[in-house]
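Listing S7. Sequence submitted for prediction.
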Amino acid sequence: MTKAPNLKLSKVAKSCFLALSITSINSFAAEENSDKRKDKEIEVIEVTGIKESLSSAMNMKRSTDNIVEVINSEDVGKLPDNNLAEVLENITGIQIDRTSGVGSSVSIRGSDQNRVEVNGRGTAPAEDARGGISFEDLPASLIASVVVTKVPTADMVEGSLGGTIDLKTYRGLSLSKPIRSITTKAEYAENRDEWGPSISGTFGDKFQTDFGEIGVVFSANHQVQKVREDSLNVRVGTRGGIDLDQFGGPGDGTSAPDTYLRPTFAQQFFSIEDRTTDAFSGSIEWQANDDLKLFVDATLTRAETDRRGHGAFLGQPGARGERDHLDSATFDVFTANGVSIPIISSTQVDGIQLRSTNSSLSRETDTDLFALGGEWIINDSLDMSFELSDSESDTFAPQFSLVTQFQNPDASNINSAGSRQRINFYYDNTGDLAYGPADDFTGDLSDPNSYAVFVARDRASYFENSDSAQKIDFSWYFNNNVFSNLEFGLRTSQRDSTRDRIVQSSANFPGLAQGDLAPFLSQTPTDFFDFNSGASYLDGFLTGDPSQLKNLEEIRSALGISLAPDPDRTQYFGVSEDTLAGYAKLNIDTEIFGDMQLTGNVGVRVVQTEQTADGFRINNGVAEDISEKQDYTETLPSMSLVLAVSEETLVRFGAAKILRRPDFGDLSPTVNFPLNSNPVQGGNPQLSPTTAKQYDLSVEHYYGEASYFSAGIFFKDIDEVVGSEVIVDGIYNPNAIDSEAPEGSEPGNLVDLILPVNQTGGEIKGIELAVQHTFDNLPSPLDGLGLSANYTYQDGERDASFTLPGFLQGEGETVELDLNFRNLSENSYNITVFYEKHGFNARVRYTYRDAFLREEAIDLANGLPFYQDDRGQLNASVSYDINDSFSVTLSGVNLTKETFDERAIFEDGPLVQQRDADRRYVLGVRARF
């Protein structure tokens, strides 16, 4: 098994650099110079404080013709958060999701299907998604500003259903003075009880030469982040045939049998994660003369994520479970579709079987982005720009898990299912979720002689992605009282995404136990869910030691599986996609109603897409080649208007048709076979793209240097949403191991198949409110106070539903209940209070979002919907400028240590999973020269 390749130059990038270095470009501009290019440059790097940052971002937002949001770095390498997803949480209409407490994905106006760009260029994703580079893979210290476009214009590349996120790096010719900045930080994670260091630097200047002006900026970052997240899930199932009244439960008052919800299969994990990111960004610009500018950009990242999940699987094979303790159980009742449903809220559950596992979820991703381009003022009426860009990513994701079973060490055959030790557990979800050994448990979970290997699962995935684009744009200026200029251009792109996978597993109970197994085991922490010290949890048990399991040759040999497995052809897929797009955009600049200024644009973009999806399919035990093609053309009109009703007040209107193509993994003609009996995830190469018509209307009032208020409404009519369809027992998985199969059993099992399908869509409408205010008129020292706050209301109506489980339905009827869009919270808000004076800066931010749908159907909720509960989080930061060169910072994340609570079936359904993320502190020193 090989590792992912090192950072490398793509072939296109090498050609670009070679061409630039060996070619002397003569001045071919027109004799009459023009200032139009200078007028278009609005980048400002000289931003050195909270107020200045807010003011410059506000002015950029104010000057645009479409609906955008802007965040500027208040100093070099100092965006308001360390993680780019957490930076975006400051913006109205954006909610983020977190993995291990760290911002990981972004939802804009109810959709996480967004496009991520760097300096306006597409980026290659890490695996088989589409949106672009992961926020976890690009440090915030490399970014000068973030621009989020909610309503696209015709010149923008299609591909976003929520919004386009453009990450702007530093540019040499925009510098007002040289940049020389170094920042060092150390982040402490409380659950993990470890520090992670980071260092970043940015250097840049511009030089006047005999050949014109040259601007150069280079940024580099090395970051280590160590986090831990504890999680526990207890799935709910149904049980009937018992009169709950005789046990004191909430029966129906008769002797008839009742149906109730009960705890079933459970999982518990300590997820320990090490994230290491090395990144570089560089830009060279050459202003040959007033009419000609050329540039070369490069962004390189290497992200390594080593996530080690030490977990336990808890089940009740052949046991009566909680029925033995119904007389001491307590119940809650919730109402669904007018029916009162009893659910056990606390009880003892007998005869639990314990299987421990290490869950290795490592990922190594190398991503590079190169671009070469230029701008040429041909004459007084015509500008031209061109650009060649290429982004590539290679991802290596190995996973090796060793599943052991807690056994009776004195059994005659410890390598057998019947030698298991059973544990009595106590269950309670009246507050925080609790599930742990009952008081009568006396076994030794730390004894390696009490474990035997149940099964080993060995897999590795390789992803390669590339995104190349070529474009040429023109701007034709003319004297007109209504229209200022016409922009038009062409763009071609070539995208490829492939996946290879190695999979193998041992037989059940392959014969590795006790003394032979001990070298591969390590003990889990003994402080699981420490926030809930009054509850009972499982801890201190043994799992596979990730450091020992990295010696794959030794462990493979001990398990009797292949030392060098070949890729599984049945799990390969490749998707290639070529596009050709042309656009025209007419810019408006006129006066109406007397002296009211009207600006904006109206345009259309036409894009043709050709896709080919390749893979293999099993037919009578033989892998056969598959190749499926589709092509389509979409016309995407757009319009953005800005009416200045006064110098301080703007009214904006936007309308556009938008397009989002399915993820590459969803287009795969092959399936992803897991090494257990979980559902198989497949693809659908005939998926249609999702389209939407959106409309925006907003009012903005600017009344101070860094103060404004805005209010807006938006509406989206979405069609062909990609959702999931579950086919029960729909596929035979040759790799699956039945958890109850006897020892020595070979893989193979009939399992459910989950396929992506196009659904009819729906509507999202909402309200966005934002205010930013600096209290400059207050007496000193209160005049350093400021406030930034926003609120978003979203109402989603989707043409999707799920069938209410039979035990919740009335006799003889089938009830369908509506489902909302994934990741859409009805209410969310963000409140930031800041203070800045005499070199002291402080900021406190609280964010909140309502409950939202995570998945329409998931195994954790027994094939039913799965919801994230509402949640708020408190972050804070302070910094002090020691002098003009040095400053120190201290920040805290998740200060109130809020948990992530997740529920089954309904938003207010039973609590089935709880995750305890780290509270994190960051201490930093910044030097500027």
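Caption to Listing S7: primary sequence and predicted structure tokens for the chain studied. Helices lie at 11-22, 36-40, 50-63, 84-88, 514-517, 546-549, 552-559. Residues 11-928 form a domain with the Maltoporin; Chain A fold (CATH 2.40.170.20).
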